[in-house]
Amino acid sequence: MQLPVSVDVVVVLAIVAAVFVLFFTQPVPIDATAVALVVALVILGEWTGVSPAEGVSGFSNPATLTVLAMFVLSEGVRRTGVIQILTRKLVAFAGDDEFRQLLATVTLSGPTAGVVSNVSIVAVLIPAVMNLARQTKRSPSKLLIPLSFASMLGGMLTVIGTITNLLASEVWVQVGGPDAQPFTLLEFTQLGAVVLLVGIAYLLTVGRYLTPARIQPADSPSDTFGMTDYLTDVVVMEDSPLAGSTVRDLSDRDLDLDVFQIVRGHRTLTRGLGSERIRAGDVLSVRADQETLQEVIEQEHLQLLPEVMEAAAEDEQPLPPGFSPRRHDWSSLDAEGSGDATGEEASGDVDEASGEDTGADGDGTDEEVSDDEIELTEVVLLPGPWSSRRSGVTDFERDYDVTVLAIRRGDEVIRQRLREVRLQAGDVVLIQAADQVVDRIARDTDVAVSSDDRWEDFDRSKIPVALGILAGVLGLAAFEVLTLMVSALTGVAAMFFTGILTPEEAYEAVDWEVIFMVAGVIPLGIAVEASGTADVIADLVVSAGVLLPVIAVLGLFYLGTAVITEMISNSASVVLMLPIGVEVAGQLGANPFAFAMAVTFAASTPLLTPVGYQTNLMVYGPGGYRFTDFARVGAPLQLILTAVTTLGIVFFWGL
How far apart are CA 612 and CA 162, in angstroms? Predict the structure, then answer.
């Protein structure tokens, strides 16, 4: 039996299908899939047409090296603090007016994304937007989808605006014919500007009313996560079986309960609690549901803090040894001069673990001392570093020296059985930590910390130098003095020699998963073209659209690429669809560059799901969105952009 297509096409389609499933479900990290893709294409080279040299060509491809350089340049600009300065101006301009907040968000994130990584911009703006919303009693959900969409559309202003643009440029050189040249820096700026303006107008009008307010205004992170019924203070009584055991002993039991703070006398303990021995009189701050809490109170002879205070105030029972009433803003015993022996012992107790007197003479005048300033804050796990991790809550707590109290994943808030949760990119983690620990976490580029007025301490004197380097890179590329790759690498070298970045900081700034993915999918484009797969799919497209005008086929091809991009990565989408688009144009007698532009714009602006683009995933948790909220706001805009982009392509480049 003869196949309707060649074996070569069948093999390549099977590889494409496998990659499609692996990218969509991600049972293994994306970079692992990309490396496996290279191996499969080379091993099956008899049918894919990919030689070993072509298989690894992605690692030396100008697109890959330019992407790598742009990660470093964006980090160099970020480390000067210039994005923070712009963000402060945004907050000052926006005030408490919802429309001005939205206007400031989209006008800052959109244009800047044309020259600086939109992921970096969104990572800085998420905390600013959340704090602005909290201060003005607004829902952050109303601003975060517009933030992501505007940064995505702004990336179409220049060829360096998105990784997809750079990759499309290289694929175009491969399949566009002998006269095809890489995209220039401003190749499609005119259309990108139109798309951005239309997108901003939509977000300020129709989109404003379609964007849901999933998270209600709240005064504190604990209110936002609905933690009122899950955080409780309990007192360890003198006859409690817990006295003398460690916190880890309690955590090892099959109980959904976590101790995240111990108040002992005038000291507050939050770090290294696992090995801390519990004492009578300790006040344990715990996270637990009401059923678990009641069970532990009954079995371990604990009492709720308010009950202990009330009973002691009415002289119904003495305070447990080591308990300091003044530490909990209660001093009626002293005021009444009761002279209760237990109360005096408590106020004069010596913390043996620290060797410090927690309150010597019981006269109520001692200053309370806390080891650390403790705070609750929200931490967003950024997609790049966290998309390939398989860390659990316990690992996160150990690595960052924090206590996890709850996790928001989209519109779901996880408050129970936290030890069983695997953290994912886009999660928002509610943590309790010492102030200096939060400061350290804020400098970690793998996460974004949302906390009032918490900014990294940057050397602002380097701003002119960094902006000058970036301007030089753009200028040299725009006037074609140097190729974009050489210009970008020159900028990286300048960042090193001017001291803006060290090589170590540059290595940390690069999203290596993206680098491996880009390098891995480039040979897939070679296989799609060399095996004849592009011809076969193009035949089907042309046959299906035989009765349609060419402009309609172009519009449908744009829309189809956008939908496919929602299910696989942007890079894989452009590598797969651009050769097909060029072949379709050839069979229709149309301008192949027009179809290349349609694929480039569609693959760079997936608006329908939170997993279609990194910035969508970044705002998914902080906004508390449902999965369908992105389609609710993005579907009308996707249809509008289909018409606008198609007509713009015809106007600027012809059909």
Answer: 14
